[in-house]
Design goal:
The strands form 2 sheets. This protein has a 4-stranded antiparallel β-sheet, with helices on one face. The chain contains 12 helices and 7 strands. Helix 4 crosses helix 7 and helix 8 (149-158) crosses helix 12 (276-305). It is α+β, with helices and mostly antiparallel strands. It folds into 2 domains: 2-140, Orthogonal Bundle (Triger factor/SurA peptide-binding fold); 166-270, Chitinase A, domain 3 (Roll), CATH 3.10.50. The radius of gyration is 26 Å and the shape is extended.
Length: 313
């Protein structure tokens, strides 16, 4: 939990390098340098904090890592020009907030940081840098975004299909009954079997094929098909799950009164589009995020264009 909080709050957390590295300068950014040890530290941090995501992306790209450090240097230099500073009290409060969210004390945080090879002072400075960069983005980008009413209307007209209200969803089910006399070991085995089915489906296996072979409900003969339902027609524990699902979505393994259940939304019958007023807040957020992404890309490009950057090969 702590690692997740640290990763979300501080994506560029730098930890100590596990191996001894012969240090050298790998880049110059205006009047500052980036060293090989900084680059290796970032690499170690990302491998520790997000190994699953790295595997999906095919590993780490050293050039991308260096770009991240260059962008960080440029942003901190820009913040310094603007006089953006963060007090020790603000850093302490941020760390207290992280501890509160993780449900741990400062002492436990210290122990976990030490176990990860991170010094408390280094962690505090990384938190300070992140707060500085957040305030910089707020000043330079977020505070300057203006959304006009006609932009919201135009976005709605161009993306109306995104806001269609789904009235009915066709559900497929795999059911494994759990006998009342089942032991804990038997229950674990059944859950593991259902989790295996879920993994197979996510990997491309046909839900209907698995349902016809393994489901223990009457829907088995129809490839797991239960039919079309509105959320209101489902019992409460299922309704909340199905409301969040779209066609093609697969539920987690659910433990219900009749056993273990795996659901898929196979199709949806859509109702008429909502009025603009009904989805205005969602549209405003979408337009804001669109503008924020575009403005940030332009802003960081301008900072880089006006900086002296030399990459050492």
């Amino acid at each position: 939990m702590l690692r997740l909080l640290i990763l979300c709050f501080l994506p560029l957390l730098v930890v100590s390098v596990e191996a001894v590295v012969l240090d050298r300068i790998v880049a110059e950014v205006n009047d500052e340098v980036i060293t090989l040890s900084e680059l290796k530290s970032l690499e170690v941090s990302m491998r520790r904090n997000d190994p699953g995501s790295l595997s999906e992306r095919g590993g780490l790209d050293p050039d991308q890592l260096l770009d991240q450090l260059v962008d960080k240097k440029i942003k901190l230099q820009r913040a310094k020009e603007l006089g953006i500073r963060v007090s020790d009290e603000a850093v302490a409060k941020a760390i207290d907030d992280i501890c509160a969210q993780a449900g741990i004390t400062r002492d436990v945080l210290q122990e976990k940081l030490t176990a990860e090879g991170i010094s408390l002072s280094g962690y505090q400075e990384d938190i300070r840098d992140q707060i500085v960069m957040t305030r910089l983005i707020n000043t330079e980008i977020r505070s300057r975004i203006v959304i006009l009413p006609e932009e919201l209307q135009d976005y709605y007209a161009r993306h109306e299909e995104r806001y269609l209200i789904v009235s009915q969803k066709r559900l497929l089910r795999i059911l494994k009954t759990v006998p009342p006399e089942a032991t804990d070991a038997q229950k674990r085995l059944l859950r593991e079997q259902m989790e295996t089915f879920r993994t197979q489906i996510l990997s491309g296996e046909s839900f209907r094929t698995l349902a016809s072979l393994h489901s223990e409900g009457p829907e088995r003969r129809d490839g797991g098909e239960l039919g079309y339902f509105t959320a209101d027609e489902l019992r409460e524990e299922l309704a909340e799950v199905v409301r969040q699902m779209n066609p093609g979505d697969l539920s987690p393994v659910l433990e219900l009164g009749d056993g273990l259940t795996l659901l898929m939304v196979d199709d949806a019958r859509q109702a008429t589009p909502p009025s603009f007023e009904e989805v205005e807040d969602k549209i405003r957020e979408a337009v804001y995020q669109e503008k924020l992404t575009k403005r940030y890309a332009e802003w960081i490009r301008d900072l880089r264009d006006n900086a002296f950057i030399e990459i050492k090969k």
